[in-house]
Amino acid sequence: MRAFLALLALLIAAPAAAEPVRVTVTREGDAFIADYRLPIDASGWGFWRSSPAASDNQSWRLKSWKVLTPGVTLERRGQQDAFVGIGGRPVPRRVRVRLTPYTGEVTSNYVPALRLGGDSIALFDGHFALFAVGRANQLDRLPAGFDPQAAKVGDYGTAIEFRGRNLRIAGDADGYRKGESAGAYGLFGVPRASVANGIATVIDSELPKWIADDLTSFTPRVMGAMTARLGPAGIGQPTVLAAWEGGDRQGASMNGGTLKGLILMRFEGQAALHELPALRSMARWFIAHESSHFWLGQAVDYESARDSWIMEGGADLLAVRTVAALDPTFDRTKVLNEALADCSKLAVKPVGTAIERGEPRANYACGAIFSLVAEKASKGDFYGFVRNLIAAGRATHTVNSDQWLTALDATASNLSLSPPIRKLIEQGSARPADDIAALLKSAGILYKVDAKGLPQL
Ligand SMILES: [Zn+2]
């Protein structure tokens, strides 16, 4: 009897053999039809990405999606958006939805849709992915960002297929093709894509011309400069996607996001209509930092979150060096002095636990300083240091803090540099500013101490 029960439990708990959720998304004028095929009978299907609109903290899906199939509703249940079967019955195995593109910001998540000028629209595939629950009221208790294993929800995977003319996939295009996308935008009716030096640039046809021209020429130059000094990138043809949100608001702003293989940028504001050097610098810096991750992040990745300072600090220093080499007007000390100031405050706690503690800035700031030390030890060639990290990590595609410090010891003329860095990573410091100043000194990096007692270049 016990064996029978165990077998039964196994059958219920192991739906891995089931088909994935399949959904095709087809354009219909300015709207889209999402046509779902669900693999099992379930009374609720929740959306993995259910975070609300940033503007009013309400479900953006309920505003922009309309269910066309009888017997099922789209509801907000607790922290989740979900398809729920009416009257406790299972959700029909085929559900059709008509959706208008929602282009507003979503809390801590990717923009569902972007308008790219003319009739071009980008849709994010991750917002279509579903999980199953046995009983719909299970949805009410699921917190935002729940652990799927602990919550015992049915994860069948969701295979998304965008359909339309002039369609381009930007982001995890390989995963998308295999039906296991880690995040990609389907670009419908895309405007001009310019491809050079292994990177595609897709630009909103309404983006102010000076920004469009700068992105189109600067992006391949960054990729060219990095490839020349770092070797091949760890990813196939990535895409830079730049959207214009309009010039109604005062001032100018840029916000960005990234996915594997995609650098996403959105510009807006009246001041951005005319050439604005500060905005240009910010955009160039962002592209360079994110492009660095095609090496530090894709060619070699961190082993665990404790080692993520290697990627973020390294990307910051690569970006500073690369932008400065291409743009003589770029302020090369600003970013590094901010790093020195911030790490001097944040390294009271171990840099290795920055992610757990919700202080990711420590990874960027302290990581950039450690990278600066490695650069000095490599006779000014940080690219060479990174190239060695990539080569050493070839077997596993990962690097951890120990391996990074070993690489530093192998490069440096003395072994005095790695112990103070290790201390900041593993323990933090009671007096970070003093420890960082001492580290710069023993690395032979020139600095001064400012009025606040912070080391500055
Ligand atoms: Zn980064």
From TrEMBL:
Alphabetic keyword roster: Signal
InterPro entries: Peptidase_M4/M1_CTD_sf
Signal sequence, renumbered to the chain: 1-18
Name assigned to this protein: Peptidase M1 membrane alanine aminopeptidase domain-containing protein
Native species: Sphingomonas alba
Origin organism lineage: Bacteria, Pseudomonadati, Pseudomonadota, Alphaproteobacteria, Sphingomonadales
